[in-house]
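Appendix B: complex inputs.
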Amino acid sequence: MSTLTLTNIAKSYANGYQAVQQLDLDINDAEMVVLVGPSGCGKSTLLRMIAGLEEITSGELVIDGQVVNHLEPGERDIAMVFQNYALYPHMTVYNNMAYGLRNRKTPKDEIHRLVTEAAEMLELSELLDRKPKELSGGQRQRVAMGRAIVREPKVFLFDEPLSNLDAKLRVQMRIQIKKLQRRLATTSIYVTHDQVEAMTLADKLVVLNKGNVEQVGTPLEIYDNPASLFVATFIGSPAMNILDAIVKPEGIEFGTSLLPGNTQLINLGDVKLGLRPEHLQIVEHNPLFEVEVDLIEALGADLLLYCNTLDAQPQALVVRVQGHAVIHIGDKLGLDINLQDLHLFDPITAKNLYFDSNLLQKKEVIYA
Amino acid sequence: MVERRPLFKLFCHVILIFGILAIALPVWLALVATTHENNVFATGTPLWFGDLGLSVFWDLLSSDSSFNNSALPITHMLFNSFVMALTITLGKLSISILSAYAVVFFRFPGRMLAFWMIFFTLMLPVEVRIMPTFEVITNLNMLNSFSGLTIPLIASATATFLFRQFFLTIPQELIEAARIDGAGPIKFFFDILLPLSRTNIAALFVITFIYGWNQYLWPLLITTDAQYYTIVMGIKQMLGVVDGIVEWNKIMATTIIAMLPPVVVVIAMQKAFVKGLVDTEK
Amino acid sequence: MSSHVGFKNKWLPIALIAPQLLITLVFFIWPAGQAIVQSTQLEDAFGLSTEFVGLENFVSLFNDSNYLASFFTTLQFSITVAVLALVSALILSAFAEHITRGTTFYRTFLIWPYAVAPVVAGSLWLFLFDPTIGVVSEMLQWVNVDWDPVLNGSHAMWMVVITSTWKQISYNFLFFLAALQSVPKSLHEAAAIDGSGPIKRFMTISFPLISPTSFFLLVVNFVYAFFDTFAVIHAMTQGGPSNSTSTLVYKVYNDGFIGLNLGSSAAQSVILMALVALLTVVQFKYVEKKVAY
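Resulting structure:
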């Protein structure tokens, strides 16, 4: 039963570098929060501040109503799973899991019970007497999880725990982590740069960029309504297409095409138009605009078409269509889009214009 | 091997066996000498064993009184050597591992200064500062004492650097995991760092034990009381006979006794020794 | 210097490092400072008063033919020891590298002299080199050489050179062998396909590739010959006959401890410190290079 409140948390280094700037975040009990962003966005620093491995420059970190800024990591009642697992090489699997409990003076039979239970849960029972170097990558990863679980901490912290595994194992472990977290109902904070991992694991997704929170929400909220150009291009694969466009009184113009509509709520002038690859539909008649196929990637279930608009200044974009569509390089395609699927971003602030003005209600107004 | 050349291989073995024999020659002759009566040497060095067997060794090790002008029984000198070598070894290992721990895992004011001071000692072997160091020992009343024999020798830049180098290879996350597991600096040191350093400690043990056992100039400077003579010094005392009969059989027996402990340590801990030696100089 | 950011305690690390620093200060840095101070002082004949004489001690050292001779002796001694010890170790390791079975056996029987104390080595070889009963003098009789290291300076020099070399071969052997074994096997295979035999491969591939180790060992051997051979000389020749084996380190000991000429001994110490400092810097420059590889 644990909640975290981060108020005005900031981290700056002696050389003046601001790793995290004035960040606020509330984390509810039993929630799985994923911090995602490119490298250098401050996600790891934030996690390490919560763990107590980095000092908090300013702001307040509260776990269950208690300010923990100045507590040692060992006193915060948290557990962490590291990217390289950080297992103690000279200890057996059993001792790796038991070490933290012993340091907390847990009674011996209690330690035994907790370790055995966790080992069973993680299918490690057979491996308890092995040393870490005798384990495979996936097994080590599970031991690292076990070490966190036995402690029954208030919060689990995961620092890119899957990035050292191969692709197949990563998917398996991802699912296992998700199940485990559901079952234990322990508040968790998970750091990753992999947006698929982020989407699949998160109850609440926090997108970070350059030490700032870009957006907080459920994975789908963020996917459907990215707050900024950064979020729009970071979440989703392949990334959202961004085209240069101009807002005119009669509608939005890009290239030679015009999306007619009521634009009175938006400033006239340049704008960035965002279109997800899967939202573009190939139409036989009355296309909104036309493209020429430049390259095709077959993923099996889908085809990714890399196209250029047929304008004087062609713009590149990706279209996702069903896997067995009969399309060839050089084909000219007509494309259309549902108006509620498109995104407009301010070219200067990079903010989503819908989002800022409560898009969902106003969409009709604009495109009546 | 890249290709098969049986003759070349045989040649390699021959060369190496020749090298081994050449290197072992002095010890062979010394061993042979211990089995002969001393008057045999008047007609030249014998090349094969005589009929005394190990009796010269037994005499040396069992007799309470010394021979010649060395004032102390061999057993006592051996004891002194062991005390000195082991104290130096344990002292060096402990203070080096502690200082390396401080330098690598803590930030504290004067850290770099401390590091450079330790580095500086590399440039100051006993041999180059004989007189002033002797004066310090005199002023501290450490002449003719085990503390004088050992304490000044236990500072070690080399051992500190070796530990430091090893500590730097320990992943940062291991310390963090330990901190999250509630281990403070002392617990971390004993529960994690020390067990992980086992191989390095073994390697340094060999090198340092040899260093301590073989000390010569230092004991020569600060012991005037025969009570503190080590076996290595004892040999020099025996060689120092100016007039009179040199008892080669006893000298050679003592020589062999003096070289045996460090040689046994090197051979028994060969693997650790080789690794340690090559690592220390990295 | 890179370092972990570990624990935050302020006093614990200072307490941990204190013993080492204390010993360093009292027995290393303070005496070194004293040597520098004393090297600028002159003591009167009775040891009652000292006066500051600036660099006079150094000037008189360099005008002292004995000191210059000792310099030359040291150089001669060190170069011979280094070359002999390096060449013999290189030959042994080059052959040892080709051996697949029994490597540990050979290594065991080649490394033990490292553990032998210099004075013990001196004693062993003194027995062989004894002018009346030694095996060496007996053998030299056959070629009509009248071996007498007690009176003949160059004989004495060869005696300490061979003894010192004997002790150092093990060390060099281990390093050469490690370096040779780290030469990628694929290079040898490529050269073998190009038709070169083991000797040619050693000359054209192994030897150039281990040149950093060779250079490093050269420095180490110099340091060894300079500073670690005191006991050999003290046990075998006491610097004699007529100073022919009196190296710089032996002279510092002899002038200071036996001759009680403090100012001169201190000045010699300072010069030696400068020499060690120079060699240490050279050695560390090399280490940096190796790290960059």
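Chain B touches chain A at residues 171, 173-174, 176-184, 187, 191-192, 195-196, 198 (CB under 8 Å).
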